[in-house]
Amino acid sequence: MAYDLLIKGGRVIDPAQGLDGQRDVAFSEGRVAAIAEDIPASEARAVRDASGQLVLPGLIDFHTHVYWGGTSLGVDAEEIARRSGTTTFVDAGSAGAGNMAGFVKHVIEPSAPRILAYINVSFAGIFGFSRDVMVGECSDLRLLNARECVRVAREFPEHVVGVKARVGFNAGGNSGAAPLDIAIEIADELGLPVMAHIDFPPPSRDEVLERLRPGDILTHCFRPFPNAPINGRKQVREEIRAAHARGVLFDIGHGYGGFAFESGRATLAQGLLPDILSSDVHVLSKDGPAYDILAVMSKFWCLGMELTDVVRAATETPAKALRRPELGTLAPGTPGDATLARIETGQFDYYDAVGEVLASDRQLACAGMVLGGAWWDKGPQG
Q: Which CATH architecture has domain 3-56+332-346+362-375?
């Protein structure tokens, strides 16, 4: 047999290759082996019928918290993957220098879906995050040791893809922009990007934006007031446009409080699209309002983004931001990950972080996934 697995008859949407049409996708030895309009079923050991389904490059959820059991906010990556088809999780700073080794050994290495990590600028990572206990890890600057962060990041170069700084009143108390300044110095030493969380000031939106470099990520980019991307007249702020124009990447990071339909609706209407769609899934958001990457993709599709742009923002662009473009495409020779989804029609209510409801007639649902060139039998059997 030429192939180990053949996904046949689906609508392949692969923005990195400019593809949107019916194709068959074959996998062999853990990689994408071929993509064509017709690959005979007789050439594969196993065949999955994807008729009526979308076949996408493996979805990348660029902002998650999956240090399950090691941090109070962590969720089980495999549980989320089963319902969302996520093949790559990017953990956004759950672990710092003090517990990155445990994250790698006990969660990342045993995980079936791929997990990459932004190391938290705080030594302890996000240690006090729940409904009853909320202590920002950057509120005490004694926890921020640049040398330790660099040392540990260099121990795990295959896993650590950037440096995370949570700034804002909830995450940093009175620390202002100092944690971000330290994170940028660490990232510069490592040659990696920074992901900047922003919530209630201080610091202000402007103080964060002026520090970010091309390739750095502003997460919670379309958050509600305060520090929203729009002013009181619902116009996109010029400093937001300027930061985006110079190459700062805008990541949704929906989560429990990071995304508002009002901000998203206004920015999309004024031609500013998010670069990356992500869920910020954690213990307080996994059962709503964020849920997972497919739910966030559904919301932006229903807000008016073209489906191809929605897929790009969960495949090609985050893969490039990770400096691993091979993860964002089904091109032959790339890692053999794929997400199968179906379009469901009916009546659906979507919620943002402030309780606004968006009624829609469609949603994306997981129909299965391919990991390392093999059908993942723990996922949906659609």
A: Roll (2.30)
The beta-strand segments (E) located in 43-95 are 44-49, 54-57, 59-64, 86-92
- Predicted local distance difference test score (pLDDT) of residue 379: 65
Side-chain-side CA neighbours of residue 47 (13 Å): 15
Nearest CA to 222 out of 285, 183, 176, 272 is that of 272
**Quick one: pLDDT at residue 378?**
81
Residues in the chain: 382
State pTM to two decimals.
0.97
| C-alpha–C-alpha distance, residues 83 and 291, integer Å | 10
Quick one: average pLDDT of 152-173?
96
- What fold characterizes domain 58-327? TIM Barrel (3.20.20)
DSSP-derived letter for residue 335 is B
Record the tokens describing residue 137, joined without a space: 């890890």
Pair of tokens at residue 190? 């490592």
User: What's the pLDDT score for residue 381?
Assistant: 52
- Residues 238-250 have pLDDT tens digits of 999 999 999 999 9
